[in-house]
Structures are given as C-alpha cells and as structure tokens.
UniProtKB/TrEMBL annotation:
Protein name: DNA polymerase III subunit gamma/tau
Lineage: Bacteria, Pseudomonadati, Campylobacterota, Epsilonproteobacteria, Campylobacterales
Entry keywords, A to Z: ATP-binding, Metal-binding, Nucleotide-binding, Zinc
SUPFAM superfamilies: P-loop containing nucleoside triphosphate hydrolases
Similarity-based family: Belongs to the DnaX/STICHEL family.
Keyword match Metal-binding: yes
Pfam families in the record: DNAX_ATPase_lid
Organism superkingdom: Bacteria
Molecular function, one GO term: metal ion binding
InterPro entries in the record: DNA_Rep/Repair_Clamp_Loader (IPR050238), HLD_clamp_pol_III_gamma_tau (IPR045085), P-loop_NTPase (IPR027417)
DNA polymerase III subunit gamma/tau helical lid domain residues: 17-63
Amino acid sequence: LSRTQHFRFKQIPQSEILNHLKKILLKENVKFEEEALKFIARSGNGSLRDTLTLLDQAIIFCQNEISISKITDMLGFLDPQKIKAFYQAILTKDKEKVFAYLEELQDYEASSVIDEMLFYLKESFFAKSTEFSTLIYERFFRILSKAKNMLCDDDGFTLCVMAFMMMEASHLKEIDAQIQEIKQENITNTTPKITPSPIMPNLEKKIEKNAYEILLDSIYDRDFDLAECFKQSTKFISFESNTLNISSNAQGQNRDTLNKGFKLIQELFKAKFGENAKINVQKALTIDENKLQSLTQELPNSENKNNIQSSINMLKEGAKKFDPQEDLKEALKDCFGEP
C-alpha cells in the first residue's frame, strides 16, 4: 500500500453523459425519448461505465424503443406524470386524490419517492415553470428536506406528514395573497385622491420692509420698551438719499425716553445703512379738535363751517406728508382767502 497512488476522479456531468448516450443510440438506430435517457444518466451517478451498462439493459428491456414508462418500470422510478398529478392534487387541496396517491405510493420506498419529488421540483425550477410560484418552491424544498430527515420504519407515516405539510404550505399562499389585498384596500381607502391641477404661478409677492421698519426691528432686538415708544411716537415719511425722514409727536415721558435712546437709535440705523446714514426728525402737527369744533359752532355762516371742517380733515390727512406750518397756512387760506 505504501507504493500505490490513489486517484480521485470527479463524476462526469449528466449533460455530457446524456449527449454520449444519444450518439450511441443514433448509431444503433434505437428509438428513444430524451426524458427517458435522463433517468438512465441520473441512475449512473456520474459513472459512464455504469450508465452504459444500464443502457444495454434498457435496450433489451424496451425492445429497441426506450420510453419513459418502460424505463421507470425497469429502474423502479415513479412516472413523472404521477408526480405532477400528485403535486396538482396538493396545490388544489383535493384531499381524496391526495389520499389515493398516498395509497399508491405505499408500494415504493419513501426515500425514493422524496428523491423523485425533489428531482421533479428542481427540474421545474430550472425550467422556469409557472406551475409553482417562487414562494411555493421555497416551502416545498424545505418540507421535502425535512421529510428526508424524518424517515423511519413507517414510510407511509412520513409520506402522509409530508403531504399534509405541503398542503398547509400551499394554503398559506392564499393567506399571503389576502393580506396583500387587505393592504391594498387600506391604501386605496386611506389615500386621498389627488386630482391633477394646472401649475399656477406664485402670485404671492414678497413684502419688503422699508428703512423705518428695518430700524424698528433692530430697536426691538436691543430694547423692547424703547422700540414701543419709538413706534407709538413716530411715523415714517420717506427714505431718500440714505436719509430717513420721520415725524415725531412725542411728549412728556415718551419724549424723554426717545431723547435718552436717540444715540442708540442712530447707531443701529448706521449699522444697517452705513456710517453716512442720517435720521431727520420733523415735529408732527398736533390739532386740538375740541377747540376747532367749538370754533366752527361759533361761526354763523354755514359755508364757513363747512370750509373749516373740510380743512380739519385735510389737516389730519396731510399732517404726515407736509410741513405743519405750511399746511396750516394753506388751510386758513382756503377758509378766509388771502390775508
């Protein structure tokens, strides 16, 4: 033994063995079915010599016409059509047919039946057959593998358990489909229908703040009370040549507050608009409405009353835009004429 060498040869692929068998049968003018040759090649277990021996036996047994039915009888295999019918009975949950096939399978070894079912399932999978779904392939392969590990003295019991597990697995497919349908219904019911609408232009205009509002925001950030006083006591007139023109009607405490905080206001304004920015404050026109009202009542001429009343209204509207003294002169001029 020390001077011998051990060579381990790989099994010959079944596809090569199958092609070699075809060449032999064509030369010998023996009729054959290709599916039957697959059973012979598979039974040789990768050994060409053993396969050729089986081929010689098959030619004699089949009388020069090799068919699937004769080969399965010779080799003791199940007819693929019976396996297909057994699978169909399981998928359709036809219990009577399943029990009938289980009775028939009692004449075969359970291990051989499981191997034939695995082989049929594998061939269907690689052939991309639509007979089984991907989910069923996965479940049936797993059940058949478990069945091989469950083999015991009672082959009939193993095959029955295997068949019931496969029927249950095929039933779960319907449950999955129902779950998917329920999900789809929920999505349909909960999702609002969105009707396409034409794209409308954005009509919203961006509101830009003027210099007065920008300054007011800055004051609020630094001193809330000063900002409130500034807002109540001043009005925006214009912003020209980097100069903010505002009118002020501050009196009493508000006036003192603005005087104390005016330096801060100027610093904030210059920080926003540059060192050359200026604030021009004009004194707002104040009108004592009670005195004007009593004056109009004392005048006998109704036309003068109307003129004075319209002048009051004009003074109220124009106090923010014009110089107070000039505005008053124009109002009196309209009432009484040139002095």
